[in-house]
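Can't attach files on this board, so I'm pasting raw text. These are the components:
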Amino acid sequence: MNESSHYDFTDMPIELGELTGSLGFLLRLAQVKVFQSFYDTQAALGLKPGEFTVLWVIGLNPDRRQGEIAQILNIKPAHMTKLVQRMFEAGFVSREIPREDRRSVRLSLTDAGRQFVDRHKADFLEFHRFERAGLDDREFGQFVTLLQNFIGMGEAK
Amino acid sequence: MNESSHYDFTDMPIELGELTGSLGFLLRLAQVKVFQSFYDTQAALGLKPGEFTVLWVIGLNPDRRQGEIAQILNIKPAHMTKLVQRMFEAGFVSREIPREDRRSVRLSLTDAGRQFVDRHKADFLEFHRFERAGLDDREFGQFVTLLQNFIGMGEAK
DNA sequence: TATTGTTATACTCTATAACTATA
DNA sequence: TATAGTTATAGAGTATAACAATA
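---
Top answer:
Structure tokens for the assembled complex are below.
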């Protein structure tokens, strides 16, 4: 490493250039911002990221194959196996081997799982939490719609 | 695990309920979508995610402290150290210890680093790539603006 | 004492391939 | 042969704390 003397630019803002218009960059920062409170909420309940979402979707879609749930949530099979195992050990999820295809696993919530989801669902659907996050109601609605279109959720006609 | 027989719901869509309006969920899926092509592009150049962004910002802000660059990109100090080390070993980044504060490190691009950034910057500023990603030009502009507001980038006045 | 950056450790998410059991 | 899920391993990002050098 060299040595040298410089003026001190410490107080000057950092320039990001065209990066400020890059979706990849902006989405990463946005996700970091959301993830913080998202993560804290889940950790407080003893859950790892993604676990509540899985419980939620299983609750809405009982008796569906594990792989179907994993696919729509973009969770890889190997990861899904461990995640479901944890939720099974927590007593929140039951697994059934259907007669018509004994390779597959169909998931449902136990009573405890359903109670858990019902009790904490409000914390996870954080509409309210983000009203104060730099967006007014109209912008928030736009934001959700644009995100849905972007990820191809709107065209499900 | 139990055994049972069921109708086969495999072809029915999975219900997501109010999750479709959750920013955390939508941002995660959006990021997964962007990250795929983003990641592939970087990997093809032998870079890990985040490395090109760091080179880019160093190029725009020569002789700034390592910690300043890390902070604005939401990179933790420990991670930044390893990232900079890799870019130093690749010959893209130079490190200087300034006389006025010998604890700190000031980063700049080497000639090779600047050439590398110039040669590949177009691939990383993927405006074009996302024109066809379910959003028209107007929506894309809205999307960027909303993301900027959301992460608190717009208020920098 | 506080700050800048480094080192070390561990945990989570992800990716991959080899494996099983069923089909 | 193909498919559903599992197991095992490794890589990458992040978080934390302890540390060295300097202020």
